[in-house]
Amino acid sequence: MIEIEKTTALTSVQDLGRSGCLNYGVGRAGAMDPLALQLGNLLLGNAPGAAAVEIPLFPFRVRFLEDCAFAVSGNDGDILLDDEVLPPWWVAQARAGQTLTVNASRYSARAYLHLPGGVDVPEVLGSRSTQLRGAFGGFEGRGLQKGDRLRAAEPARAMKTDVGIASPWLRFADLSSQVQPVRVLPAGEHLAYTADSRARFWQQDWKITPQSNRYGYRLEGEPLVARQTMEMRSHGIVPGVIQVPHNGQPIIQMSDAQPSGGYPKFATVIEADLWLLGQIPPGRRIRFIECNFEQAREAWHAQQAYLQQVDKQIKQLRQA
């Protein structure tokens, strides 16, 4: 068991999110960086989608109330167990009474704290993720607060520590870059915008504004202009869809996106790059790279192959 000592209300319990509920008006929720979530779980021998604590603001501090193994993923800042500095993407053992502090990363926006078997909270509609908009799931349907206590699903499970992996950023992205390339597919209303706007969408850098959160990333750049005024009925949307409101400044739907909206759909971030988008903090800039369906599928398969490779390597380390 752990007790939260320092956090913000934006910290929450998340897994890979709810599937099959959009037709009921229930959004997906889930980790903003699903790649880090899965890798951290593999480190501990958890199911890839086990629930973890998603940490978006720092410093974050917990106290262990009993002996427990843990791992921290998605972060390259200082991670301290009492006064001992731990490597990122690493399995360690805490003793009862010890304090874990996760400090801000140099480049990434979020970290994940993983416990053996996952964080033990009730499953709601097939997921343990916190749905902040609907106030259900996770820990009492809300963000975490000082004094909250969370249990590991398998706290006594024997665990080999000092097992880790190289940061996946070295393989998939350079998060130190001031402008991050994000691959997207053109969407339904792409051709409803002027030729100049379509060209500008790919050529300019877009700033992620401070008004961005788990619901959506609001972008700032030279506005996109439609060929004519569009009035659309609300229709289904999913995380990754890039919509354009009347002011011409795009909004990227993120993990807590509502399941429907009426703004035109200009493009969609490919599934394999959603993790990257979730790790880019407000104030940084992105540039959209057009790709086709085959390229998007290849990128997804490459990411899944990497997860399988890491899983195999970690199992071999445990057996050594």
UniProtKB/TrEMBL annotation:
The keyword Membrane does not apply. Keywords: ATP-binding, Hydrolase, Nucleotide-binding. The keyword ATP-binding applies. NCBIfam families: urea_amlyse_rel. It comes from Rouxiella chamberiensis. This is Biotin-dependent carboxyltransferase family protein. InterPro entries: CT_A_B, Cyclophilin-like_dom_sf, PxpC. Residues 23-306 form the Carboxyltransferase domain. SUPFAM superfamilies: Cyclophilin-like (SSF50891).
